[in-house]
Design a protein that fits this description.
The structure holds 2 protein chains of 2 kinds. Helices cover 28% and strands 18% of the residues of chain A. By secondary structure, chain A is an alpha+beta fold. Chain B is of the alpha+beta class. In chain B, 59% of the residues are buried. Classes of the chains: A alpha+beta, B alpha+beta.
């Protein structure tokens, strides 16, 4: 049985105060499980966002030992004995502790951007109602890509541009709007090709590649 | 049935009626209730102790129930699921994968249920179609070729975070004040009536206490309803019933796969994005907080999933988690026979309770006015639950305002945060 020391940011991010908590790694599988135990037994006021606990909602992003990750998918046994530092995501509105309000992140998305696409599983024909099989997009809008991106000028950000590129590719009705979205000063021009977005994305959306797609489409358009 | 088709930009809340309602609990029920009441002209404040949907709502496996699962037991509930699942499909289209469902027959006794099951579906208004085992495997190649038969029904999957968030976005557009990170610490009573709540607001740097006055309070706190009721001095006979779910990193099917047998543990596989989720088990607990999934439940779920979809066994695990459902208990205490037990075993007793929703009117039951508790129900019928609860609020406050939540397509969940115009 081993003990992991978690060093959790407290208060508003700027104040850089931390509290230490020891957790038995046998009792908690993930960082989120560990915070649930800490809040339940020791620190009832601890603030962190969470909802689905399986990497679908995108609410529990944090910076764990300096890397943007989802807390619900980060296993304690990958982290060693610690201290493991947990900080809130950057470029959001601080609420306190690990919780950050993603309003600035969602404000960047193209208005009316779609979220359903063809499911991609092979079927002989359409479904019972004659329509194609559908599923939601991979992007869970967790904001890890935006938090890690070093670009310091006004920028729509990797997630919003990836959404525009999916629209360009999958929804012909939104082609022009997507290219116009990418062509503004906040669009692809602001990207400095660090590709950290693609590295931290928990859903293999590869936003960096999506931004390159948009660049090529804009160039072809002339 | 009228299909909701009016874009939200044309939604108009009724003229403000001057009555204030405080909704406690930021799950799916609270979200739909805040929206419904705001549309009817109430001034609504919703408080949630953590982030929205952080209790039970977000941890749902995401099956959009057409009602087939409940048809044998309760036709009225099944019919309501069918109607509500269709409404939701039009109200929140982007948060639903509407690919249908397959009930698979694994054993001879499942096969014997088939005719009654299809008849019960028909009587509940659910289009159910018998298919041979071969046809079923042709429809969804990942299901076990050894199945004896199957029935196609109009189930779907929904995003358990984004669907309720669209209701929150709509509520906010209609003027509701939504306060996450705000926990009710106490209620103030005056002459047998709840008149105010003391709320600890953690969304500020130094936590602050706020007093919220309202003409009516609705507790939509699910497995936490017993605790919230106790603060107001009423006994709410609810116990937390944690259920475990397991997700793997592979999408095997587009349809929801269910085991055709009387509802039990580990009998539903829900596809969602690139994942498949098997749910669930059911136990009982004293405390709805800090619930983590027991290892034996995870092993049981893996075995149950593999019986329906053999590929499950080799798939990479994504996550296992636990959600506290509210379980009605006449005494408010945990029946001894439900404690402990094996998954799929004794705790099953909890499944015999009605899945219908109940509004406990504390004026009628406890002689304390200005407060009701809504419990039970299912995620799929959140809109209908909110309609019934709002009707009760209207009756108690003498307001005559019809429900209009069936009319409008909801705004995007993104609008909850971005605050964009509808």
């Amino acid at each position: 049985m081993s003990i992991v020391l978690l060093r959790v940011a407290r208060g508003l991010a700027q104040s850089a105060a931390y509290s230490d908590y020891e957790v038995e790694s046998s009792e908690a599988e993930t960082v989120l499980d560990a915070l649930e135990l800490i809040r339940g037994s020791r620190e009832s006021g601890l603030r962190y966002r969470h909802s689905c606990h399986h990497g679908s909602c995108g609410t529990c992003g944090a910076i764990i030992d300096g890397v943007e990750r989802l807390m619900c998918l980060t296993r304690l046994d990958e982290l060693g004995a610690g201290p493991v530092t947990i900080d809130p995501l950057r470029k959001m509105n601080a609420i306190g502790d690990i919780a950050a309000d993603p309003s600035p992140f969602f404000a960047e998305f193209p208005r009316g951007s779609g979220y359903l696409r063809s499911s991609g599983l092979g079927h002989d024909g359409p479904r019972d109602d004659g329509l194609p099989y559908e599923r939601m997009e991979n992007c869970i809008e967790c904001g890890l890509c935006v938090s890690v991106c070093p670009v310091a000028v006004p920028f729509s950000g990797p997630a919003a541009l990836a959404a525009a590129d999916r629209d360009r590719e999958e929804r012909p009705g939104r082609l022009d709007a997507s290219l116009a979205f990418a062509a503004t000063e906040r669009g692809v021009a602001a990207c400095e090709r660090h590709f950290l977005c693609s590295r931290v994305c928990p859903q293999a959306v590869y936003p960096g590649r999506r931004i390159e797609n948009l660049r090529r489409s804009l160039a072809r358009k002339g | 049935m009228m299909i909701p088709s009016v874009p939200f930009s044309q939604a108009r809340a009724a003229k403000h009626n001057g009555r204030r309602v405080c909704v406690i609990g930021g799950g799916g029920t609270g979200a739909a209730l805040a929206y419904d009441l705001s549309l009817r002209g109430f001034s609504v404040t919703l408080v949630e102790k953590g982030e929205l949907t952080s209790g039970t709502t977000g941890r749902h496996h995401g099956q959009l129930h057409c009602g087939a699962r409940y048809a044998l037991g309760d036709r009225a509930i099944a019919r309501e699921c069918m109607e509500e699942s269709l409404l939701l499909r039009y109200m929140v289209p982007d948060a639903i994968e509407y690919n249908g469902g397959l009930f698979v027959e694994l054993e001879e006794e499942d096969r014997e249920l088939e005719a009654n099951f299809v008849e019960a579906c028909a009587e509940s208004g659910i289009p159910a179609r018998i298919v041979s085992a071969r046809e079923a495997v042709a429809l969804e190649g990942a299901i076990a070729p050894s199945i004896l038969g199957a029935v196609c029904v109009p189930d779907g999957s929904f995003d358990a975070f984004r669907l309720p968030l669209a209701f929150f976005a709509a509520a906010r557009f209609c003027g509701a004040k939504i306060m996450p990170w705000a926990e009710v610490m106490d209620f103030e009573r005056s002459g047998g009536r709840v008149v105010a709540a003391t709320v600890l607001n953690r969304a500020t740097e130094s936590f602050s206490e706020t007093r919220i006055e309202a003409d009516y309070f609705v507790s939509a706190t699910g497995a936490w309803a017993g605790r919230v009721g106790a603060l107001a001095g009423v006994d709410v006979p609810i116990i937390p019933a944690p259920g475990t779910m397991l997700a793997v990193r592979e999408r095997f099917c587009d349809r929801v796969i269910s085991h055709l047998h009387p509802a039990g543990d580990g009998d539903i596989i829900v596809p969602q994005r690139g994942l498949s989720i098997i749910g669930s088990t059911q136990r009982v607990a004293e405390d709805p907080e800090s619930l983590l999934p027991p290892q034996e439940d995870i092993a049981f779920l893996m075995k149950s999933a593999t019986a329906m979809v053999p590929g499950f066994a080799a798939a990479k695990r994504r996550a296992a988690w636990c959600a506290a459902r509210p379980l009605a208990s006449a005494s408010g205490t945990i029946p001894r026979e439900l404690l402990g037990g094996e998954p799929g075993g004794e705790a099953k007793a909890g499944r015999t309770i009605s899945r219908d929703f109940v509004a406990l009117d504390h004026e009628e039951i406890d002689g304390i006015s200005g407060l009701c508790t809504i419990i039970g129900g299912k995620a799929t019928v959140l809109r209908a639950m909110a309609e019934k609860a709002s009707d009760l609020v209207c009756r108690r406050l003498g307001v005559d305002a019809p429900c209009s939540t069936k009319d409008f397509v909801l705004p995007s969940w993104r609008d909850y945060y971005s605050g964009g115009s509808a």
